Amino acid sequence: MQLNAIRERAERELTPIIENLGYEVVEISFLKKNSGFILTVFIHKPGGVSLKDCEIVNEALDQPLETLDLTGDIPYTFNVSSPGLDRPIKSMKDYERNLGIRVDVTFIENVDKKKKLSGILKSHNESSCELDVKGKKYILEKNNIKLMLPYIDLKGISWEVIEGNDK
Q1: What is the 3 state secondary structure string of the chain?
Q2: 93 vs 87: CA distance, rounded Å
Q3: How far is CA 48 from CA 79, 99, 132, in A?
């Protein structure tokens, strides 16, 4: 059994169903873990993905997955999830979704003597992207980007200790 072939077939067969529900397929993974095989569909929609959204997609895929028998009767666990706030920006769709958003970028080779930059993602194409760092424009080669993540600002968040859960 080829994991990549199963993932590709799942992507080909399930993506149209998910898109017809109004969601974007961010990624489909099929992995072997200690507990067995896991098929996970990561979805996105403007404004974020709720638990109800995951339930809707899960229910819509239940019968097609049964009919398709992607794994040839090998048991697996099926999950539907949001990609999470801290998902790395990799695909063209990820870049599109994050245009105009502040991102943190770590480089393979330093850029302007810096290993990291944080700025607004202004544009992108197949090989590069433009980052605005406090008014200074950087054209970054994608093959020099080690990691790009949406900037998450945790300042100003109140962290309350719930009584009895402070251990």
Answers
A1: CCHHHHHHHHHHHHHHHHHHCCCEEEEEEEEEECCEEEEEEEEECCCCCCHHHHHHHHHHHHHHHHHHCCCCCCCEEEEEECCCCCCCCCCHHHHHHCCCCEEEEEEEEEECCEEEEEEEEEEECCCEEEEEECCEEEEEEHHHEEEEEECCCCCCCCCCCCCCCCC
A2: 13
A3: 17, 16, 25
Q: Which domains does the chain have, with CATH numbers?
A: 3-81 (3.30.300.70), 92-150 (2.30.30.100)
The bridge status of strand 36-44 relative to strand 76-81 is: parallel
- Tell me the backbone φ, ψ of residue 47, rounded to 5 degrees: 90, -10
Query: How do the pLDDT tens digits run along the chain, 167 residues long?
Result: 698 999 999 999 999 999 999 999 999 999 999 888 999 999 999 888 999 999 999 999 999 999 999 998 889 999 999 988 888 998 898 999 899 999 999 999 999 999 999 999 999 999 999 999 999 999 999 999 999 999 988 776 666 665 555 44
Report the predicted TM-score, pTM, of the whole model to 2 decimal places: 0.73
